[in-house]
Design goal:
This protein is an alpha+beta fold. 39% of the residues lie in helices and 29% in strands. It has two domains: 121 residues, Jelly Rolls; 169 residues, Beta-Lactamase, CATH 3.30.450. Helix 3 crosses helix 4, helix 4 packs parallel to helix 7 and helix 5 runs antiparallel to helix 7. The longest helix is centred in the last third of the chain and has 40 residues. The radius of gyration is 23 Å and the shape is elongated.
Amino acid sequence: MYRSHTHLNECARIPLFSSLKKNQLAQLADAAFERTCTDGIAIYRHEAPLTSVCAVIEGSLEKYIDIGDITVSVGSIQRHSVWGLEALTQPGIRFQHSIRSGIDGARLLEWPVRDFMRLCANDSDMRARILVALSSQQERVIRSLEESLALALAIQPIVNSPDLSLQDKYEMLLAFTAEVCRASCACIAHFEPHQNLIRIEAAQGYRDMTRGSRLSLRGDTLLSRMYTASSALYISPATYERQYAMARYSRQHMALVPLRLNDDDTGALVMADDAHPMGSDVVALMQVAAMGIRLVSLASHEERSKAYTEYVSRVYIGLL
């Protein structure tokens, strides 16, 4: 970690600081430390005292909870987002989740909480502007939670319907989630690592990709990355790489969420659009839909396992 006095432009790009005056941005920039983290470096441990405010200027951070030996992702902090400002309104706050750098690492601007609070205490206008922006951000988070709950209730009849086939459920869940997320393109992909394949279970909005399409898992540029990392990916024009264009489902605005069965990554839910951003609120909605898809897949898996067990029993009895 080292002190830098050249971060004025980075601070100006952060939406939470967009209403600050130039001299206020300069004060923030002068007080910031820069920190570079490789993949998986711990930034914060749950229940620890909050010691710093972080702004992501490259890469991303992942929020997670450890449940026994299992690590559960509970969200991400994307580029130009800020974490830890709750200390301004809730001194001594301790979070239930932990934070680590994402799969591509992260470059951060950090301010010790005491230094940040001192800046705000010395400039009441700066404090007021930041608190107004923070309040608006928290309102968006609450709206996102409400939308997630509404989506969970809406997809429940699809998941529980005894009259719909597995394929019908996939397609209905995909279409409904795409509409809620305002995504023009969407697909459900299934990984078959032993055959080096990605099989498309359902697709919407793609001209050259439909149900049954097969892609190479090893040669893929995005889904294979998510399969390896086991975490959600958010792609924006700022993070879009030329190699991603090789994937038929690729767009400059994308969000990819892993689908899991028995704690193994078995596929992915993909939302994409040519113009509409797929932000962290969209990822939160997709994770709700992913849970519904997992329940559908799990029920189907149990039915297939039961049918196979009955078949083996009949064959065994026949041999006797």
